[in-house]
Amino acid sequence: xxxxxxxxxxxxxxxxxxxxxxxxxxxxxxxxxxxxxxxxxxxxxxxxxxxxxxxxxxxxxxxxxxxxxxxxxxxxxxxxxxxxxxxxxxxxxxxxxxxxxx
Length: 102
Ligand SMILES: [Zn+2]
What we know:
By secondary structure, the chain is of the alpha+beta class. The chain has helices at residues 22-33, 40-47, 51-61, 89-94, and strands at residues 5-7, 17-19, 37-39, 67-73, 80-86. The chain has one domain (17-94): Orthogonal Bundle (Arc Repressor Mutant, subunit A). The site of zinc ion (ZN) has 7 residues, from α2.
């Protein structure tokens, strides 16, 4: 396990010491910014964790009605690349998503 306890300063998710598993941190963050999509580097930067760990976490998050990995535009760097985003069932039902399959 990596160090999941450290200080987040300034614009971090929590002002004090965090003791939350990385998947929970990432999923919480993605829910907070939904429906924005983030690429791995920007997501790693946002949650202040190593890119490799965040990448692995994002890959593992994917699931029906939860999070999706797809090619899209990153909210932060505006690059069109593989991103991760929160998927809400209501949006799926409306067919609001771009017709891009991963
Ligand atoms: Zn980005």
